[in-house]
Amino acid sequence: MVIELGEQARDFSMPDQNGNTVRLSGFSGRRVVLSFHPLAWTRICAEQMKALEVNREAFEELGAVALGISVDSVPCKRAWAGSLSIKKTLLLADFWPHGEVAQMYDVFDGTKGYARRANIVIDEVGRVIFAAEYPATTMPDMQDVKGALQAHERSRREEEMPLA
């Protein structure tokens, strides 16, 4: 992964599973978890997206929203979200231009034609505060993501504390 911690996140827009356009900049003032996965309808990707849904409230408590991203199309994402009972987590279709956002974030596998498995956390002012790539056969640990969000929150609070 080439993206650097502290780097300014690149804005993007793409449709979610319902065909609604989602812009990263639309979450200004919130933290965002970009959870890239290779392809819908695969076991580990399904577990990864269900983990986003299960942890949605915990992410919200930490001021974050999670977005699942893959190169699959909107109709594919819609059917998949339904089959997984994902009701609130946005699953974004990086379908066309093919893998453009995954390429922007340096997680696109040009040989295989899909995103590598990765989680990237962006803070409320648009800086990358966490980035991890995982083997395709490994389910990402959402505790790592929550830990990064919690550490960022502690750091932010410490900066706001008046000096004695």
Report on this structure.
With 164 residues, the chain is an alpha/beta fold. The chain has five helices and nine strands, in the order βββααβαβαββββα. It has helices spanning 43-54, 56-61, 74-84, 100-104, 142-160, and strands spanning 13-15, 21-23, 31-36, 64-70, 90-93, 108-109, 114-115, 118-122, 128-133. A five-stranded mixed beta sheet has the order 5-4-3-8-9. The protein has a two-stranded antiparallel sheet with strand order 1-2. A two-stranded antiparallel sheet has the order 6-7. A hairpin with a 5-residue loop joins β8 (118-122) and β9.
Fold topology:
Blueprint: E1 13-15, E2 21-23, E3 31-36, H1 43-54, H2 56-61, E4 64-70, H3 74-84, E5 90-93, H4 100-104, E6 108-109, E7 114-115, E8 118-122, E9 128-133, H5 142-160
Parallel strand pairs: 3-4, 4-5
Antiparallel strand pairs: 1-2, 3-8, 6-7, 8-9
Strand order of the largest sheet: 5-4-3-8-9
- Tell me about the biggest sheet? 5 strands, mixed
Low-confidence blocks of residues: none
Beta content comes to 15-25%
Ends apart, CA distance between termini: 41 Å
Structure annotation, total helices: 5
Tell me the series of helices and strands, N- to C-terminal. EEEHHEHEHEEEEH
Whole-number average pLDDT? 94
Helix content: 25-40%
Radius of gyration, in Å, reads 15 Å
Summarize the structure.
The chain has 164 residues and is α/β, with parallel strands linked by helices. Helix content is 32%, strand content 23%. The longest helix has 19 residues.
